[in-house]
């Protein structure tokens, strides 16, 4: 059996077996969810869009006023070593940094002597089965209960977790978050809409995570001359869409074909979504799998 998390993992400057990796119960990640994370897909042992992921990690660290424990070259070296040590060609690399462990519990930042906790591991890349992709998946809409800095990729994910669990209990793959009548994103994905041949994308604001896949979808649409409109998407526009897609580093581009129990468009994955999936695969194969 392949383990879910590969050995070794990285913790605070060391590579060690997962079973030997220990963190203080006073770690602020544990006490407060005071930390940040990234998830980087790896294809054929090459990290995909690594610079973009590490740039977003830095932006999130800046956003929560936490110094990066490693520089760019430091993270690259950690990631290369994790990839090399794992048994799979396609992987996902998880990175997490928390504000570390003080010797007491206090909401305010700990003294500078408390160093951040940096943790990273490799796991197999879990992809969507072709038969699921061919049919598309179901989603529900829920009210967005998150805080006002959803652009930061922080580990405090309780509102996302509750939304996602609601979806699971409804037999659905994703929960689409609605705030003030507008669609923001999914509990763990960005959402795109197609109407009359135009690809609609919500703008990057503080109420949406700037997805690495989202950026690539916009780049590919622009590169291939796909009509595109970046603007807030109302709940009504979502419900009357011809196509709805979810995007993320692990889901890539996945059609949502049922929304709140009703078919999206004709209830089948649409032509633009299939085209974008193909463009995405071509990009991956050109950039990643070559040489
Ligand atoms: N989630 N929006 C949210 C709220 C997310 O959690 C994610 C990704 C995305 C898509 O971002 P990207 O394209 O960079 O993966 C959008 C990751 C996969 C996770 O939480 O595990």
Automatic annotation (TrEMBL):
Pfam families membership: Aminotran_4
Cited InterPro entries: Aminotrans_IV (IPR001544), Aminotransferase-like (IPR036038), BCAT-like_C (IPR043132), BCAT-like_N (IPR043131), Class-IV_PLP-Dep_Aminotrnsfr (IPR050571)
The keyword Transferase appears for this protein: yes
Coiled-coil regions, chain positions: none
Keyword match Transferase: yes
Database matches in Gene3D superfamilies: 3.30.470.10, D-amino Acid Aminotransferase, subunit A, domain 2
Cofactor(s) required for function per UniProt: pyridoxal 5'-phosphate
Keywords annotated in UniProt: Aminotransferase, Pyridoxal phosphate, Transferase
Any one Gene Ontology BP term: amino acid biosynthetic process
A GO cellular-component term linked to this record: cytosol
GO MF term list: transaminase activity
Family: Belongs to the class-IV pyridoxal-phosphate-dependent aminotransferase family.
Name of the protein described by the UniProt record: D-amino acid aminotransferase
Source organism of the structure: Candidatus Dechloromonas phosphorivorans
């Amino acid at each position: 059996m392949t383990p879910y998390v590969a050995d070794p993992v990285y913790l605070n400057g060391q590579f060690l077996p997962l079973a030997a990796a220990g963190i203080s119960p006073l770690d602020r990640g544990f006490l407060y969810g005071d930390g940040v994370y990234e998830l980087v897909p790896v294809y054929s042992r090459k990290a995909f869009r690594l610079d973009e992921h590490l740039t977003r990690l830095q932006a999130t660290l800046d956003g929560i006023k936490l110094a990066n424990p490693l520089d760019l070259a430091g993270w690259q070296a950690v990631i290369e070593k994790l990839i090399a040590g794992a048994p799979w060609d396609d992987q996902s690399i998880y990175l997490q940094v928390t504000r570390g462990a003080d010797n007491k519990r206090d909401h305010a930042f700990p003294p500078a002597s408390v160093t951040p906790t940096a943790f990273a591991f490799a796991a197999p890349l879990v992809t969507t089965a072709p038969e699921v992709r061919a049919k598309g998946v179901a989603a529900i809409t829920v009210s967005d209960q998150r805080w006002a800095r959803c652009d930061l990729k922080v580990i405090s994910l309780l509102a996302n977790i509750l939304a996602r669990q609601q979806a699971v209990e409804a037999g659905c793959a994703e929960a689409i978050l609605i705030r003030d009548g507008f669609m923001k994103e999914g509990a763990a994905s960005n959402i795109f809409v197609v109407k009359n041949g135009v690809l609609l994308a919500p703008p990057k604001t503080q109420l949406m995570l700037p997805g690495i896949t989202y950026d690539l979808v916009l780049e590919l649409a622009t590169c291939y001359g796909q009509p595109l409109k970046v603007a807030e998407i109302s709940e009504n526009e979502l419900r009357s869409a011809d196509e709805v897609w979810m995007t993320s580093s692990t889901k890539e581009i996945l059609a949502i074909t049922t929304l709140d129990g009703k078919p999206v468009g004709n209830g089948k994955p649409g032509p633009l979504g299939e085209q974008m999936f193909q463009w995405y695969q071509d990009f991956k194969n050109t950039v990643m799998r070559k040489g």
